Amino acid sequence: MKRTKGDYPSFNLFSIVGTWESVNLNPTVIIYRNDKDYLLSIIYVSETTKQASPATYEIQQDGSQYFITAASKWLYIDYDPGKDVLSLSSLGDYLRN
């Protein structure tokens, strides 16, 4: 079966590298490259201790979509280059910091 343009993501991972802040007050997200892999870290801050603790996930690809697996759930990653807005399926929209 021949693959078409629709089989590939509409953006490359290099374009979303950086620190992203949630518009819905969800945890901050950092995307970076480690050797050949791209990683996504979610920075959780404890309400009581104010300690930050990162959780890091490898960004994977399923056909035309990128995702991470967090707590046995797939979180899909989308990016709108025109608005420079990152979207995570269950966490909402993020703006570049």
Number of strands: 9
Round the mean pLDDT to the nearest integer and report it: 91
Share of helical residues: under 10%
Q: How much β-strand is present in the residues?
A: over 45%
Helices and strands: which structural class? mainly beta
> How would a textbook summarize the main sheet?
9 strands, antiparallel
Shape: globular
Q: What is the C-alpha radius of gyration, as a whole number of Å?
A: 14 Å
Spans where pLDDT lies below 50 across 5 or more residues: none
- Spell out the helices and strands N to C: EEEEEEEEE
The assembly state of the depicted protein chains is single chain
How far apart lie the N and C ends?
Answer: 41 Å
User: Going across the major beta sheet, what is the strand order?
Assistant: 4-3-2-1-9-8-7-6-5
Q: How many helices does DSSP assign? A: 0
Give an overview in words.
- The chain is an all-beta fold and 97 residues long.
- The chain is 0% helix and 56% strand.
- The protein has strands at residues 18-22, 28-34, 37-45, 52-58, 60-62, 65-70, 73-80, 85-88, 92-96.
- A hairpin with a 2-residue loop joins strand 2 and strand 3.
- It is globular and about 40 Å long.
Map the helices and strands.
Blueprint: E1 18-22, E2 28-34, E3 37-45, E4 52-58, E5 60-62, E6 65-70, E7 73-80, E8 85-88, E9 92-96
Antiparallel strand pairs: 1-2, 1-9, 2-3, 3-4, 5-6, 6-7, 7-8, 8-9
Question: What are the defining features of this structure?
Answer:
single chain; 97 residues; mainly beta; 9-stranded antiparallel β-sheet; 9 strands
